[in-house]
Design a protein that fits this description.
This protein is mainly alpha-helical and 235 residues long. The protein has two domains: 78 residues, Arc Repressor Mutant, subunit A; 144 residues, Four Helix Bundle (Hemerythrin (Met), subunit A). Strands 1-3-2 form a three-stranded antiparallel sheet. A hairpin with a 4-residue loop joins strand 2 and strand 3. Helix 2 packs across helix 3 and helix 4 packs antiparallel against helix 10. The radius of gyration is 20 Å and the shape is globular.
């Protein structure tokens, strides 16, 4: 009886591990642009490619549908491929939620977390961000995640996380090349402005600085998207 329960538990853990791994791999490929936007993802083909059964593939795809990175139309799965209006809607939602996140962080964030965030912008690190795009993206994600964590509002976190994943993917489409130096400098300046407002416990200024930062990022992203001559589906 005990052996049977252990076997069942091991089977459940293995299944969860496979689902998590499949989700991670597909997500990584989407962000690496191996699966172009709008491309169909076939369960059987993915299962053969990843050398797993179709069950963890289906569950992995469902997880990514929940994150907004994959669309399911009732028959097939495809990579998120938004219209210009949908992109604008996503940006608008994120801007408002990020503003609230920064304002709440000014009220709740621990000093140790603030010290950690300020520490990411030492001079040597900034030089590295200018030459290694992946490092800047990593720091940018940590910055926004830590502020959201500091906001201490799980409901806000749930609403913002899926929107942020879509924003990161949109940025991945248009920033395949290395960021220009001015982009890195401006991003870091804006991050420090937000952190200084949070450190001063100025909720209004922190929220306003974050909203402006997100708006500036939107403007830069739209410019990059249009310069890339990317075509978007009709509404």
């Amino acid at each position: 009886m005990i052996a049977t329960k252990r076997t069942q538990k091991s089977s459940i853990l293995l299944r969860q591990y496979l689902c998590d791994e499949v989700t991670r791999i597909i997500k990584l490929r989407i962000f690496n642009l191996e699966y172009p936007r709008g491309s169909r993802l076939l369960v059987e083909s993915l299962a053969q490619d990843l050398k797993v059964s179709m069950t963890p593939v289906r569950e992995g795809l469902k997880s990514l549908v929940a994150e907004g990175l994959i669309v399911y139309d009732g028959k097939s799965y495809s990579v998120f491929n938004p219209t210009e209006k949908e992109i604008a809607d996503i940006f608008n939602i994120r801007r408002m939620l990020e503003r609230l996140s920064a304002a709440l962080a000014a009220r709740h964030m621990e000093e140790a977390d603030l010290t950690y965030l300020f520490g990411m912008y030492r001079r040597d690190d900034v030089h590295r961000y200018m030459s290694e795009q992946s490092e800047l993206i990593k720091v940018d994600k940590i910055f926004h995640a830590k502020i959201l964590e500091g906001a201490d509002n799980p409901r806000l976190a749930n609403m913002l996380e899926s929107v942020e994943e879509q924003c990161w993917l949109i940025r991945a489409w248009c920033y395949a090349q290395v960021f220009p130096k001015w982009y890195v400098e401006r991003t870091i300046e804006e991050h420090l402005c937000i952190l200084n407002a949070i450190k001063a416990r100025d909720e209004k200024s922190a929220g306003a600085a974050m909203e402006q930062h997100i708006a500036n990022g939107e403007e830069r992203t739209w410019e990059a998207l249009r310069n890339s001559s990317m075509l978007f589906p009709a509404v």
